[in-house]
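Please check these two lines:
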Amino acid sequence: MVARLQAYSKYRFTSGLTFFCDADSLFIKPLIVDAGGKNLLLSPRLLDFPVNDRFPEYYPEFTGKTINQVMPYLFGAIATIGDQSKTFANLLTICKALPDRFHRWYGDQYSLFMAINNNELDFGLLNPSKHLHITKDALTSSELEHLQKEDIQMVTFKGPQSKKYLLSTLENLKDL
């Protein structure tokens, strides 16, 4: 998590749009983002559920809480307009001050939560239904066509087979 924040803070931003996403993501349609006058756009979680405070190690900060109480925004899709290196440098500083376990897991998302709670960020929202559609399976050509008709622009693959599903879906995308 520290490495991601270090990389984002050192990225050479342009004056235009930069879109950060997870490596297990695939754009299935051209990216169109309505920034609404904001220079930082985050992806809110669509689902809420109890956090497992014991995975992958013990996180007492999560005991008795739901995911939206401690990490309501996903790092898998973030859009920026212009130079946001200071924003990511600030998140890195917050992350480094957290216990070491946050350097291994959850530190980026938890730092984001802390910065927002401290009113350190002015941000808008991405539509996660369009910009961070999550799947745990390979997508067929007909499923991809359906998602494209719904204006979904990016899918992210989760689970132990994610790389296999991404490659299979990419082959199906070529057929469209």
